[in-house]
Amino acid sequence: MSEFKFCSNRTKRRRVAAEVAKIITDVENDSALAIAHSSSAATAVNDSSTHLLEGDLVDVKSNDSKVSHFSDDDTSSEVISPVATSDITCSDIGFNTNVENVNAAVSDLSGETWEECEGWNCRPVSECEDDGSGDSYDDDDVFEPLASWAVADNIAHASVNRLLAILKKRIPELPADARTLLQTRRNVATKVVAGGEYYYFGIKYWLQILLNCNNSEALLYSDTLHLNINIDGIPLFNSSNVSLWPILGLIREVNSSPFPIAIFCSKSKPSSLDEYLHDYITEMNELINTGFGHEEKIYHVTLGAVICDAPARAFLKCIKTHSGYDSCERCLQSGEWCNKVILPSVSAPLRTDASFISQQDPKHHVGKSPLLKLADCRMVSGFPLDYMHLVCLGVVRRLMHLWINGTRDCKLSQTQVALISEHLVSMKRYIPREFARRPRSLSEYKQWKATELRLFLLYVGPVCLKGVLSSEKYSNFLDLSVAMRLLLSPQLHQHYLSYSEQLLQYFVSQFGSLYGKDQLVYNVHSLVHLPDDVRNYGILDNVSAFPFESYLGRLKKLVRRPQMPCAQIVRRVQEGSCQPTVNETNRDKEPFKRPHMEGPLPVAYFSFLQYKQYFGDEYFVSTGDGDNCCIIEGKVGIVKNILVNRGVGSLDAFVVFEEFENKISFFTDPLDSQLLSICVVDKLSGFHKVMPISHNLTKCLLLPFKSRFVVIPQMHYS
Hints:
The chain has about 725 residues and is of the alpha+beta class. The protein contains 20 helices and 20 strands. Among the domains are: about 120 residues, no CATH class; about 45 residues, no CATH class; about 160 residues, no CATH class; about 120 residues. A hairpin with a 2-residue loop joins strand 1 and strand 2.
């Protein structure tokens, strides 16, 4: 009994059928051999030989020694009595016992006896598959998944060709070349524009694709599409000056990734801005005047914002660069020389769209921008200050540089840098999964990406710097952190807009006092103008370059060799790479993962299923560190379990929630941290509450601080 292995009835039937097929094959082979030799012997006798009467039997079994010595090469076989080959059956040549065994096996299986061995045609075990699938393949069932895989993972054509060569032996219908599988265009009509290789996809091309695959409610009740564009350069190779300067677009009303309006590759930036922007300006004016028709509805298309870093904005607007006099894009101040050009004033008169068009400040301009040909282009308010470059890569990185490599008055000791770095590294396990990059040592700050700098400014920096920086420097850093949190918070930005503006002005003035007047450069000064962009566009993430920078990196990976990089990118995009896919929700996916039976499970919910992970449309919640701290209905606590009613969707999903007993403010200056839902907690209550998973849930970071924890609401989920 210990050797008994359970198997299904289907497996039993398959094994019996295979054994039957094997027995029948042996019977047919031996029967055919005997008949062949009998026929050979029959032809050796003369025509006067006496034939056996019908029904007579030849006892071949008694002559086993003779039959067993028959072979194709045997010419000395003993002649036996001639027989009619058509009258010989399996029983005539001594296989009665085998046929009875076959009949018994089939009788056990189906209740019927085996009549004939000639009609059986069963596949052997090796060909029987549990899924019942045959060897025929539908082209779409194979081609589409294979092509989607190659596109999604950016697989080189050479690798796809090698895979196709292997699969083609099994699936002859597959093409032999990746270009056939991916429907790669043979010719790409690039042209030389502004000193580089250029291709124009167009705005209408992408609008048609986006509107066909989007069912956003915003499009149902709105007939206006706001197009945000981004223009920036990125080097393609480490050993070459070739760079990529695409024109990227993003529709504000469509929840999707950016898309390339035009691709430009050259060893330098476009030599002629008019040539570079000509196609875009022509099509944009047409859309502004006539709109875009889709499914019997006309959408009014307008330019939302031009989102670029400071050098690109200066290039597009034909103004002074950020290092020159009269370089501020928002206010009328000439600047001062302090070993570099600085902009110390925080209350200078402001520029307007009208004053820019009339060029009232001629020192600010170096030419006339072709973007003035657009019907609705606002050359001041239409160019928001991107906080990714301005704040994260600009001011925050400058602060780190001053702490590590600055003058004696602002430089930190090696012990202080080590303490901050140690605290940062220890926080890795407490960072939610939505953050792709975890904290690392402060000594590597030059390699930090913008998302790491944002994480430091808004989340981990206020915790790890407290008690290490001097009170003045820490208070100054906290002013910047709180002001940026207010401008990025969907719930707080309107109510605290004036306060955040005053806070940024105070930060800039104190920054000059603490770190030196020579540090009041373009980036630091421009902080005072960020609240104006919030008035025009809402939270700063609405006009951030983060999605465009991420997309630029994806475009760069499409280039696989140095020859004709523009054509390579166009072909890859037309194959399906870097498409502006609409961000899907988890409604059609199973949102609950990792079932368990570990509890805690309240008695009233004993019939509910238990899970450790919940993938919501807006956030991810887990019972593990980093993703288990939430604020639900104003209560701060830890998610201990996730419960789902049997057979019911996420509407009947609950979390087992344990609240913190003690909660105090983390700081009181520049305002009480609890107004931002930031607090210090400790000591769990020990009582479990069951609360529904709903939109009232706010996910938080729970960061260690001394013997307690700091709770900071999470604002970024991608």
